[in-house]
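Handout, section 4.2: multi-component inputs.
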Amino acid sequence: MDLLFRPAHELHRLLRRREVGARELAEAFLARLDAVEDKVKAFVTVTRKLALEQAAAIEVRLARGEELSPLAGLPLALKDNLCTRGLRTTCSSRMLAEWVPPYSATVVERLAEAGMVLVGKTNMDEFAMGSSTENSAFFPTRNPWDLERVPGGSSGGSAAAVAAGEVVYALGSDTGGSIRQPASFCGVVGLKPTYGLVSRYGLVAFASSLDQIGPLTRDVTDCALVLQAIAGHDPRDSTSAPVPVPDYVAALGDGRLAGLKIGVPKEYFPPGIEPGVRQAVERALGYLEEAGARCEETSLPHTPYALPAYYLVAPAEASSNLARYDGVQYGYRTEAEDLRQMYRRTRRLGFGAEVKRRIMLGTYALSAGYYDAYYLKALKVRRLIKEDFDRAFGRFAVLVTPTSPTVAFRLGEKIADPLAMYLSDLFTIPVNMAGLPGLSVPCGFSNGLPVGLQIIGPPFSEALLLRVGYAVEQAAGCAGRWPALEVGSDG
Amino acid sequence: MVIISREEVEHVAWLARLELTEEEKEAYTHQLNAILDFMQQLNELDTTNVEPMAHVLPLVNVLREDEVKPGLPHEEALAGAPDQDRGQFRVPKIV
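Output:
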C-alpha cells in the first residue's frame, strides 16, 4: 500500500482500522527519507531509533484496543528551534551545534501526549533569520519541486520534508513569514496562528513580540488537526492568550462560502509581482466567488512601510534576545585571555553573517541617539499597520493576498543582497506586525512551481481561515499533486 | 548618503560584544547604510500623535500564586556549560 503523500486524516483512519501498523508506517517514511534526503537535505538530525521506539509504543496501544488521538503514530518533523529534552536543538547555528536542552517546548510535550513519532529536527535559516534556508550554518536545504531552487525559509527544512514525503506533517515558526513563505514555495499548507494562540515556551526566541509556532501540512484538514493539538493557553508563556480553543476540524465546512465578504488589498499586487503568481491568485479569487463569497478590492495604505518597520523591530528584539549567547551558560565558546575578549570572539565565531548583521542593526536602532529615530518610529508605524487591518476587518471577514511575490527562487540568487532577500517577505510581514493569523494554501502553479494564497483574518479567526482555505483547496485541486523527485532504482 | 560611518559600526559592534574582522567592518558599513537608507521612507509618515505599539496583546502584569515548585536541577542547569567547576560556571579572569 502506498502510504507516502497521504494526509494525516487518511493515515489515522488506516491505523484505526488496523489496515496499517504504526511500525510499518514509521518504516515507510524512514525508507523514503533514506531515498531522498541526500538530495533534499531537510534534516539537521534524524531520530530513527526514537521514531521506531515511539511507533512500537503506539503498536502496543493499538493492540490493547485503545482509542488513538488523530495524530498518534503519524511521523512528523520539528523545526530545530523547538526545544526537545535530551535531543540536540541547534537553530542551525554553530552557537548551539552541540546543545542538548534540559526541557521540551510545550508544543512538543503536547504532541508527545498525542502519540508523537518524531523522525527528526529540520534545517532552518540560523536562528530563523532568513527566507531561503541558505543561512543555515550546516548546509542549504533544496526545494523538492526543483533541487536548484530554495525551499524558502526560515522553516525551509520543515516545508521540504513535508513536500518530499519524508514526514506526514511538521512544525515551524513564523516571525515575518517563516512558515507561510516556505509553505508557498514547497506547495504545502502553512499556518501562522494569532500571536498568543500557541505557547512559545521552549521556542528559541528570535523576536518575542512577533514569533509564533505553527503547522506545515499536506492539506487544510491536517492543518486544523495539528492546530487543535498545539493551541491553547499555557501558564509557562506569559504572552499566551487565555482564550477558548474551538473545534477547528468541525469548522471546515463543505467548501461553500455563501455571502462571505473578502477584501483584496491592492497593495499586495504591485507591478513587480511575478505574472504567474498574479494569475494563480486571480484564479483563486474566481474559486472563492464560485463558492459564494464576494471579493472586493480594498486598500491597506501603510503596507509599504511594514517591511522597513519590521527590519527595525525584529532585529532590535533579536539583538536583545541573542545577548544570552555569551559562551558562559551553554553553547559554543572560544577561549580567550579575558572575559570580554571571550564574549566577543565567541560571538564572532559562533554566529553567521546574517545573524551578526541583524544584531548590528538592532543594536544600532536601540542605541543612545538613534532609539527615537528608528526603534520608536518603527513601533508607531506598527500601530498604523495594525489600524489598517482593524479598519479592513470592519468591512471584510477575511483578506486574501499572494503569500509571496514570486515562486521559489534559485539557490544563491539573493544571498549576496540582504535587501532583495528581505523583500521576499513583503506580504507576510504585515501579518506578524499586527499579530494576526495568516494561512498559506496552495492555489496553483507558475512554470511548474507552486504558488500560495495567503488568507488573513482578525485575531483568533483561525477556524474561519481554515474554512476559506478548505474551499480554495477543494476548488484548486492542488492537494494530491506532489513533486516527482526522481529516485533511482539504486535508492 | 552616509548614515552610519565605519567608526559607528565599530562602536555598535563593541556594544553588541561582537568582534569583527576588517572585511566584516567594511561589508557591514556598506550593507547597513543600504538598509538604513531603505528605512528612511518611514519618515514620510507623520507619527506625531501615534502611540507606539510594542506588543499586540492587551496583556499586562500576568500574575500567579507564589508557590514553591521544583525547578531545573543544578546538574542539568550546568550540563550545557562550556566550562564548569565545583557546581559553578567558570569564565576567564574578569579583572
